[in-house]
Amino acid sequence: MFHDLIEQLLTREQEKGRKKRVRTERRAAFRRELMRPLQLEPLEDRRLLAYTATLVGGSVALTGGAAADTLTVDTDGGGLLRHNRFTALDAGFMSDNDFISGNGASDDTIMAAAVTSLTATDPSGNDAVVLAQSPTTTTNALTLTGGTLSASGFTSITDNGNLAISGSSDFAAGTITLGSGTFNVGTLTFNSVGAVVISEDSGTDIIGVNTAGSLDLDGSGSVNGAGLITAASVDLDAATGIGNTTALELAATSISADTTSGNVDVDNTLATAVNVSSLTTTGGSVRIDQSGGGDLTTGTVAATTSATATNSAGAIALDGSVNAASLVANASGSVTDGSNGDLAITANASITGGTITLGNDAGNATNFGSLTFNSVGAVVISEDSGTDIIGV
Question: What Rg, from alpha-carbon coordinates, does the chain have?
Answer without folding.
Answer: 36
